[in-house]
Amino acid sequence: MTVKKAVCVIGAGPSGLIAMKELLDEGHTVTCFDHNADLGGVFRAGAGTDEPGAYDSTLLTISNYMMAFSCFPPPEKQERRFWTAIEYRQYLHDFADAFGLRQLIRPRTDVLSVARSDSGEGYVVETAPVDDPTARISHQFDAVVVSSGTHRVPNKINLPGQEDFTGVVTHSAFYRNAEPFRGKRVLCLGIGETAADVVNEIAQVAASCTLSVRRWQSVVARFPGDRPHPNDAYTSEMLNALPLAAATAVHRVGTLLGKRFGKTAASRAIAEWNSHNKSFFNHFLTKNEAFIHRIVDGTLTVNASGIERLGADHVVFKDGRRETIDTIVLNTGYTEDFTLLKDVHITDVRQMYKHMIHPELGTGVVFIGWARPAAGGVPACSEMQARYFALLCSGKRTLPPPDQLDQLIKRQAAYEDEFFTGNPELRTLVHYNRYMIDFARVIGCSPWRPEVFRNPRLAYHLWCGSQVPLVFRLNGPHSDRVNAERRILELPVAFNAAEIVLATALTGVTRALGAVGLVKRDGVY
Fold first, then answer.
1. What whole-number distance in Å separates Cα of residue 373 and Cα of residue 513?
2. What pLDDT digit, counting tens, does each position of 160-200 carry?
3. How far is CA 444 from each of CA 108, 388, 449, rounded to the nearest angstrom?
4. Cα–Cα distance for residue pair 463/152, rounded to 1 Å
5. Which residues pair with 128 in a beta bridge?
6. Phi, psi of 504 (to 5 degrees)
7. Helical ranges in 106-236 per DSSP H
8. Are 237 and 472 in contact (CB under 8 A)?
9. Do you know which InterPro entries this protein is assigned to (predicted)?
10. How far apart are CA 88 and CA 298, in angstroms?
11. Taking the model in full, what pTM does it have?
């Protein structure tokens, strides 16, 4: 018998919206609370200067086909490209309208706490209007989805000697454009995908701009190798099958060749940057090379030695170099905040199955949006989480027994700890292909079924093409095979015949060597 539940969704960003849609597909009743007046999370319109939000020139770092949900692909015949924040915001509004989500959202409402009901049945969610915090209301729900996102609380680190610094310290969460930095002497800390744009823009208008990094973060160009395909076109099953040892070796050779034979100064500079990183794939991949162009034209200098201390108007690096500065921009990410939960203490999302289900909470309270792939997109991972949770609520899927669930959590956390050695502090990181493939098995929506080989063209696209979310709508609950297959076949494959043959052969050889102990084998997710 299918169970129908009353479910609370906290947050109307991308993860909250897909959670609502999947719950409705299963016939559940949904109420969503959101702090903001508009849906979209960090992509919403009208974010204040003191709130995290998209900056004016935001261009997404993965393509439209990876940012879009599989149940609502980009418009027909739209080429594969990078959406702006405005385009993605419109997509989210169109998505909400298409599935009747807007009327389920209660905007300008803060969730103050989530706690088990005294009766032991369900959860009490306490809310208050943003404009009247004292007007508290308690609501009863069968289950709760926390999808308030990972980009809410900026990580404002304290630097040695910061108390002596007399200049301005800000965080990239509040960055909108480079005008406030015109003519300034700016120190930027950290380099991620947002930072790549922030540093790029500031360097063009500042009197001087210095980038301080602790590590040489892996950088991927938006269009690798100056080819016409965006970077996520290469997230294929074929490359996923290539053992890490072989992929790392191939990348090192490619980097050496790129430093010398790259077609442009920027491509050679990317290779030079990545040559400092001996474990390229063990990091989050910064899929935005914008700042590299400023290194090339000399408007940006880089120091990777670390900061010794700040002075009133300067910074001293650990290599002895000193720079005069008046402004510091922290590109230092965000911290997790789960304090609204009263029944469990969570410090690490890897304590949870699939980064979403804590053993002490089970399916009562789940987290959607805390799986961030090193390559690929958060929306795709959130969609799989939402599909699974909706089926759990309906009783069509069940959690593994407690002992087995505990073992799965430990094994998958150990895999992620071992794999992402380059960014041990980024606990939300997942391996896109492994995460999605394993989830497809749990949900029952794997694209790989015997009948797929009756359609060689589809099999070719599934093996060599990008693993866009659409591939997980071919089969399983709420599948849309006809439309999913058609859209998959419309997307061009990024690899040529020689590359496909080489990659497949290298996979076979490396796996054979791994079987006899001559090459390190990949871990088991």
1. 28
2. 999 999 999 999 999 999 999 999 999 999 999 999 999 99
3. 37, 10, 11
4. 37
5. 110
6. -65, -40
7. 193-205
8. no
9. FAD/NAD-bd_sf, Flavin_mOase, Flavin_mOase-like, FMO-like
10. 33
11. 0.95
